Amino acid sequence: MSLAEAPNIVRNKTIRIKHIRHGYCNSCGDCCNPDFRAARRAFYEASGIGYKLTHGEAGCPDFDSERGKCRDYSKRPMECVRFPRIPIDIMALPQCSYYFLSEITEV
Ligand code: SF4
Ligand code: SF4
Asked: Is the CB of 100 under 6 A from ligand 1?
């Protein structure tokens, strides 16, 4: 069904979509791994919300490429603790154990 064919009950309403994070961090290291940077950038750019990878192109100096993990995970910055914040953050991270559920409310 196209949007134009959607029932009237959906049209002419203003809704708010809230993405609620669930799950836990399994310390897989995918979010810090430069191997996934190009795929992540593609998702951000396609979404229109812009390219916003932590540490940019240089990557994080605390990433241990041999182990594929953070060198000091227990003391990682708050920005890393709060990751992921939105669903697109994890779209190119195959081992991430977080997931999001969406709550839709009419405003
Ligand atoms: S500080 Fe650790 S958790 Fe944060 S981006 Fe760097 S390697 Fe990843
Ligand atoms: S990809 Fe997800 S599960 Fe893996 S270290 Fe990052 S936040 Fe944790």
From this structure: no
